[in-house]
Structures are given as structure tokens and as C-alpha cells.
Amino acid sequence: MSGTFTKSMARNVFYGGTVFFILLFLALTFDSMATLPKRDNRQNLTEEVVAGKKLWEVNNCIGCHTLLGEGAYFAPELGNVYVRRGPEFIKAWIKSQPTGAPGRRQMPQFNFSDEELDQMVAFLKYMSEINTNDWPPNVEG
Ligand code: HEC
């Protein structure tokens, strides 16, 4: 007996391990789902934010930018741009594109109205207030 690892022991390890990790997976899933409402900033989802998100989609900002790490790597991360730059900079920036600065990547002109600029800023503000455990790190893009 001692020193032999029998078939039935192997089976018990397999079933026991499987059940243990399924339960652990379920527990962590429930924990994540319970934590989301406290972290996803849903209480601040105003109509203005939703309109800004639509502008974000329709104009394919994600085709160049990342948002909380998702998207394209052509242009800076924008999940924390509201904190880094503030609303007035963001509006002035969007209005003054393309910069034409030699050697720098360019961003198109979107011809947003003042209302649309406010919506865009509201969306970026909302994004910056999601509790992501400080992702992305607060570094210059
Ligand atoms: C074709 C690519 C492209 C698209 C599409 C694009 N951008 Fe950009 N954007 C850039 C580039 C490139 C920069 C950085 C340019 C530089 O630093 O000179 C930039 C910079 C920015 C900045 C300043 C970032 C910072 O860290 O200071 C903001 C804000 C911004 N974009 C918002 C937007 C929004 C909102 C949209 C969609 C409506 C959008 N961009 C769509 C290319 C793009």
C-alpha cells in the first residue's frame, strides 16, 4: 500500500480537484459580479454620457486609440485623458485637429458641434471614474 498511487487514488484526485476548482471559479465569478456595481460608475450614466459613447462608436475613435487598454495602438490611451488633460484641453484638442505638426501622427477633424464636444467630454469623464484598480497607469501618452 505505502508508496503506491492506485487508480482509485488518481480518480479521487481528479474528481476532487475538478469539484474544488469549479466551486472556486463560481465563487470568484459571483464575487466579481457583486463587486461590479460598486466599481463600474453606472450611477453616473447620464444621457449626455450615452450620447458621447455613441459619438465615440460612430467616429471609430477606437480605430486609433485604446480605452482602458482595449483598441488600437496608433494613438494615446484615453481612459484617463480626462484626469490627465481636463475638459477644456480635450475640447480644444478635438477642435484643432489635424495639427499638421511634422513627424507626428495625425488625428482627423470631426467637426463636432459644441454640444457634441460636451457629450464627448462627458463620456471620457465617465470612463475616467470607473474604478479599474488604477488601470491604465497614470503616465503621459
Ligand atoms: C486616425 C486616427 C485617430 C482617430 C480616428 C482619433 N484619434 Fe485622437 N489622436 C490621434 C493621434 C495620433 C493623437 C496624438 C497626436 C499627437 O500627440 O500629436 C490623438 C490624440 C487625441 C487626444 C489627446 C490625447 C492626450 O493624451 O493628450 C484626444 C483627447 C483624442 N485624440 C480624442 C479622440 C476622440 C474623442 C476621437 C474620436 C471622436 C479620436 N481621438 C479619434 C489619432 C486619432
Quick structural summary:
This protein is mainly α and 141 residues long.
Description of the molecule:
By secondary structure, the chain is an all-alpha fold. The protein folds into two domains: 1-39; 42-141, Orthogonal Bundle (Cytochrome Bc1 Complex, Chain D, domain 2). Helix content is 52%, strand content 3%. It has five helices and two strands; from the N terminus they run H-H-E-E-H-H-H. The protein has helices at 7-39, 47-58, 81-85, 87-95, 114-128; strands at residues 66-67, 70-71. It has a two-stranded antiparallel sheet. Strand 1 (66-67) and strand 2 (70-71) form a beta hairpin. The chain starts with 6 loop residues before the first helix and ends in a 13-residue tail after the last helix. The relative contact order is 0.15. The mean pLDDT is 93. The protein binds heme C (HEC). The site of heme C has 25 residues, from helix 3 and helix 4.
Overall mean pLDDT: 93
Largest sheet: 2 strands, antiparallel
- Report the total helices: 5
Order of helices and strands: HHEEHHH
Residue share in helices? Answer: 40-55%
- Within CATH, the superfamily of the largest domain carries the name Cytochrome c-like domain
CATH architecture of the largest domain: Orthogonal Bundle
Alpha-carbon Rg, integer: 23 Å
Strand neighbour order, sheet with most strands: 1-2
Task: Tell me the layout of helices and strands.
Elements: H1 7-39, H2 47-58, E1 66-67, E2 70-71, H3 81-85, H4 87-95, H5 114-128
Antiparallel strand pairs: 1-2
Helix pairs in contact: 2-5, 4-5
This protein binds heme C (HEC).
